[in-house]
Amino acid sequence: MEPVSDYAYQPELSIIIPLYNEEENLELLYQRLREVLDGVERTWELVLIDDGSTDRTLARALGLRGRDRRVRVVVFRRNFGQTAALAAGFEQARGAVVVTLDGDLQNDPRDVPRMLERIEEGYDIVSGWRKARKDKLITRRLPSIVANWLIGRATGVRIHDYGCTLKAYRSTVIKNLPMYSDMHRFIPAIAASGGARVCELVVDHHPRRFGTSKYGISRTVKVLFDLVVMQLLLRFSSRPLHWFGLVSLPWLFVSIGALLVGFVQQSDLVIVQFWTVTFPSVAVLSFILFAHLIFVGLLSELIVDAAGHLPRNVMRGISKEIY
Fold first, then answer.
1. Last residue of a domain, one of 189, 205, 236
2. Which of 179, 201, 236 is the last residue of a domain?
3. In the chain, what are the helix, strand and coil shares in percent, each to the nearest 5?
4. Same domain membership, residue 108 and residue 89
5. For residue 33, pLDDT beyond 80
6. What is the number of H-type helices and E-type strands within the chain?
7. Buried b (16+ CB within 10 A) or exposed e, 241-279
8. Are 272 and 302 members of one domain?
9. Mean pLDDT over residues 57-71, rounded?
């Protein structure tokens, strides 16, 4: 990662845009953003993250940097994905408020002032809702509907559009959150669990004019795995024994059930041999797995207690305010 920056300038607002092969969109996006941001009565910066683009996106970004010192560029040597790009942007952002949006011209910069108004009302995160989304039904909208429903059910934080990149954050909140894998879409849920005030705002959405989408239906599978990880972080990160205990209980029941069934006598010799040898073996193996999971949980508790706990510290950082 190679940042190009001017640290003498301290803006009030940071706009973060991850870019991957968006050379045709970048210039027009910059012009639209500049028209909007010059009217918000706040000093601002634009942080562009080139996520290993293979076209002329980087050259266009550096060209904007040469023309406008409020533009900063972060360069990845290869493609690391949207979460890594956003995390790099959050790290470089210097504004008290941070706004993220896609680089494909589908998000509308004119929604940014409306988001800032909600931040001024006291919210910590304003999440965009593409209510009239202009994407393909099968490959984009349907997987998104399923993913949003799953996330809402699992976390209890009901948001219509977790996948919308257009969001506004207080810097004090977003800089305390862990970012890895594809966890950027869970930011509102993670922050809300720490006491952050989250709201939704209906935003405009436009059809893609140039280039092709970098995401498809395969994202739904990633969401399922990331959802499990997030649940571990939010519910069991400070008490791992509870998680391993829940996972081990079914194996304990299997062990007890197999042991009881093994005592059942049948008239057929083959069946007797099967029931009296196989089921006790299943009972023993299941109990060993149960005990193994319990011991792993105990070791995890010791590690958490000895080394400290990052997610718990993150939640504390979100939950308190210093005036």
1. 236
2. 236
3. 55, 15, 35
4. yes
5. yes
6. 12, 8
7. bebbbeebeebbebbeebbeebeeeeeeeeeeeebeeeb
8. yes
9. 94
Quote the tokens at residue 220.
């739904």
**Same-domain check for residues 14 and 116:** yes
Interval 62-83 mean pLDDT: 92
pLDDT of residue 281: 76
Q: Residue 174 sits in which domain range?
A: 2-236
Q: How many domains does the chain have?
A: 2
Q: Kindly report, residue by residue over 226-276, the tens digit of the pLDDT.
A: 776 666 666 666 666 666 777 788 888 887 777 777 665 544 444 555 455
Which CATH number does the domain housing residue 28 bear?
Answer: 3.90.550.10
Mean pLDDT of the chain: 80
H-type alpha helices, the chain: 23-37, 57-67, 82-92, 112-120, 142-155, 171-174, 187-193, 219-231, 240-262, 269-273, 279-307, 310-319
